[in-house]
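Checked the freezer inventory, then went back to the computational side. Two predictions to log before the end of the day. The first one is the construct we discussed on Monday; recording sequence and tokens without edits.
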Amino acid sequence: MGTGSLKNHLMDLVNQLKLNQSVEFIDEGSQRRVRNLISESHFVISSSQHENNPVVLIEAIACGKPIIATSCGGPEDIVNETNGLLAKINDPEDLSQKMLQMINNYDPQKIRADFEKRFSSMVITPRIIALYKEVIAEHQLKFSCKNR
């Protein structure tokens, strides 16, 4: 799902390999469509070369699905031994090995618990509120110092 500069190349490759019955390209999806696709999958793969905040990985673990992602900046903060594996960038062999390792190797309940512990609104909301309070306090301090 998504678009990118390699989409046409990948579509041609799927045609050449006669994988049209197994691969579907989807440009965009509603939140419900993404959730349904993740729920129907065995695991989610993000093979990006650069990602700073791959939300799809968090969405996957929220659904109890294991993840495979490339070590490209952001996934390292999400992927752990409970929910998935990290692969090398631009290394199809490593990625395929991780896919083989992934099959039937993760517990959906543990993955969901990992999500709840690290990314649920019960955890994130207090952090965001504390951050806002900190920024407001800093701003008020700077503002009061300027007016003296």
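The second is the one RB wanted added to the comparison set:
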Amino acid sequence: MNIIDMLGDLTQLTEYIEKEVTRRINLATEPRYRSAEINELAEALAAAQGEYVDIPYNRTNLSWSDEYTDLDMVMKYIRPCLSKNKLALNQWTELTLHGSTILPTELRHSTGQRKESRIKVVPSRNDIRTFDSVMADYRRQQAIGLLGVTLVGDPKDDDGEIDVAVNYKESVKPSDTKMIRSKESFDCISQEQLEELEVELDGYPTLAEELMTKYKLRGLSDMPRTKFKFAIEQIRKLRKNY
């Protein structure tokens, strides 16, 4: 091969490398959880949201009497708005290389524009009933968030009160039911109510742990006042099963 041919080959190789680098840079910068353009999807979703109606609660958590709206009820109210505006909601599961289960939730427009959210499914126990339960809860939460749905009087929309309950000193053990509160502004039960809880739970340490796990507490003294009545009623019901 003469020098002219070699230079020609090098020029082609350089052009190929430049094109490949540009292609890969574009792939890397493209939004991962949405299409490059979402203008028509956003317009359709805005129109659908203008047609949303109030969605009632239709279920009650059997353990702690918390009211909630299941996914079927949400979709019965929202699906006509989505269909009218050429929007579709899709959910499925994916298995990662590390064995984790991921739940993608995608909102897609008839134009092909899309956006999605993803969440890692982490059940507290490795059995099918627990997995199904947490999956149903995740599906509902992801759909509500992606579609911009709000629920009237949602008890979970509590100005972050439950999250405040986990902001404590690391030195305090979770089983210490008499610890000092770390945030005075948190509206917790009174000393008299705390003593009533301790009497009800006396001799039932497992039930006490379940109660603190349910409300994400590090101690019974930080039980929200709004949950005290429900907690007492459920403790008395659940004690019969111990």
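For RB: The chain has two domains: 39-147, 161-241. The first helix runs from residue 3 to 29. Let me know if you want it refolded.
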